[in-house]
Description:
The chain is mainly beta.
Amino acid sequence: xxxxxxxxxxxxxxxxxxxxxxxxxxxxxxxxxxxxxxxxxxxxxxxxxxxxxxxxxxxxxxxxxxxxxxxxxxxxxxxxxxxxxxxxxxxxxxxxxxxxxxxxxxxxxxxxxxxxxxxxxxxxxxxxxxxxxxxxxxxxxxxxxxxxxxxxxxxxxxxxxxxxxxxxxxxxxxxxxxxxxxxxxxxxxxxxxxxxxxxxxxxxxxxxxxxxxxxxxxxxxxxxxxxxxxxxxxxxxxxxxxxxxxxxxxxxxxxxxxxxxxxxxxxx
Length: 268
């Protein structure tokens, strides 16, 4: 019986399935918008090196954010346009958009390379949900069709791994002014906002009193509390990154015996 070179076979399989290829990253942001606002979401890519094709489906909650249009297509991607071939928008009213693209130069055996954090295209939405609601933005397989429309990125001769960082849109319910004024205190917008490592929540009490400062995550869970007597005048509370769960949108509330005010902070 003929012997099989196992090492050679293993290497061939690795090459065939592209297991050693650098993963392409597809990223969508977290964003907070006002009720009724029209806004754009950029779909960005990194390690997009010599890529000849891509396909994936984007999902969202249409009762929270309503699809408007596709735009801002990357000019360095030939044969990429807003036509039905590249963007199947037939199910966009139901919160689903299919994306597909292919281009390859057979004379040079090259495809498309983009700088890291390049925007592939943008989706335009309108915020139609109620205050405080949110919608995930997800790149995923569409398993409702046969065969499934899977997430797939490829060079001209092999499939490339894909790393996906999904996003979220939150409909703000917080006054956009720089302060919230009540009969007992002024609650200021945290500064800086958004922040990465540390921010400060400031408030000015009319008279010294017991006050309760609480920070909630997007699910309404308490992630930080400070309850004590504060003197009259300005108080400044530091909030560090490790005090919160993860990047995203949070609400902070200051409450005294007679007044309550809420504002929003965003950690990047």
